[in-house]
């Protein structure tokens, strides 16, 4: 069916920024903006671009997205070539793997760099199929330290319970060992006592049998 064929072609090219689409960066640091693309039928003269949309308040209507990187890849045997890029943007990707990496690094980020970054790919070999993925960047003055107090309390409680369980098992084994030894000692005493009684009875019986019957 023609419709099914178009549907399959449209979804042959895919672009992804990873499991999460949010990134937090420290002011004046360098931040990686990840992006990879996949294609089922290969590519030829592929074009990829990065766009930036600021989150700052702007006049209505909003200005068009700012292009910060433009690259091309002739084929899977060629490394990407840069067409145009912002001076603070560095390409760090590679196409040596199945998931072709077209990630960039934004150097010396500022608070004004916070916003939406879009990774856009166009593949002429797939009838100019296009796809994109978006990642949101937040720039902070300092990183917030995670409070692990609750986690430490839980770990401490669980560790204490495990320690008590091990101690209880050790005490139980010691008590059972002592009880077993005590019972074994009692059995030895009973056997020894029983043997002495039988011997005495036997000796007494032997002496009685050796006595001559009284004379009439």
TrEMBL record:
Q: Which domain of life is it from?
A: Eukaryota
- List, alphabetically, the SMART domains matched: IG
Q: Which GO terms describe its molecular function?
A: sodium channel regulator activity; transmembrane transporter binding
- What keywords is this UniProt entry annotated with? Disulfide bond, Glycoprotein, Immunoglobulin domain, Membrane, Signal, Transmembrane, Transmembrane helix
Q: Where in the cell is it found?
A: Membrane
Q: Give the coiled coil ranges.
A: none
Q: Where is the composition biased (Polar residues)?
A: 191-201
Where in this chain does the record put each Ig-like domain? 2-136
SUPFAM superfamilies cross-referenced by the UniProt entry? Immunoglobulin (SSF48726)
- For this UniProt entry, which segments traverse the membrane? 150-171
Q: How does it sit in the membrane?
A: Single-pass type I membrane protein
For this entry, the protein name equals SCN4B protein
Q: What gene is it encoded by?
A: Scn4b
